[in-house]
TrEMBL record:
It comes from Stutzerimonas stutzeri (Pseudomonas stutzeri). This is STAS domain-containing protein. SUPFAM superfamilies: SpoIIaa-like. InterPro entries: MlaB-like_STAS, MlaB_ABC_Transporter, STAS_dom, STAS_dom_sf. It comes from the Bacteria. Residues 1-92 form the STAS domain. The lineage of its organism: Bacteria, Pseudomonadati, Pseudomonadota, Gammaproteobacteria, Pseudomonadales. Gene3D superfamilies: STAS domain.
């Protein structure tokens, strides 16, 4: 199933700043969300800013749910992943 074919109700949409200032809050929110449902995909289009802490959250998410697709990266996410040579983290 391609990213464009994934039903929106099974997609977890992430947004805002994925930075050190919000890392603990985001970690708690992600854990709560993942306890309530198992998404088929995670949309990254709403992430406006990301630093190493935000990247660490995405890597932990990928480790915890390896079959979940990471789709629709925002420009900030694309730049960060390219900078650290982790564009393979995304599913096309």
């Amino acid at each position: 199933m391609s990213a464009s074919q994934i039903p929106h109700d099974t997609t977890l949409k992430l947004g805002g700043a994925f930075t050190i200032e919000r890392a603990a809050e985001l970690h708690a929110l992600l854990l709560l969300e993942l306890q309530q449902r198992a998404p088929e995909a995670v949309s990254l289009e709403g992430i406006s800013e990301i630093d190493c802490s935000g990247l660490q959250l995405l890597l932990a998410l990928r480790h915890q749910l390896p079959s979940v697709q990471l789709i629709a990266p925002s420009p900030a996410v694309e730049q960060m992943l390219a900078r650290v040579w982790l564009t393979s983290l995304l599913d096309n």
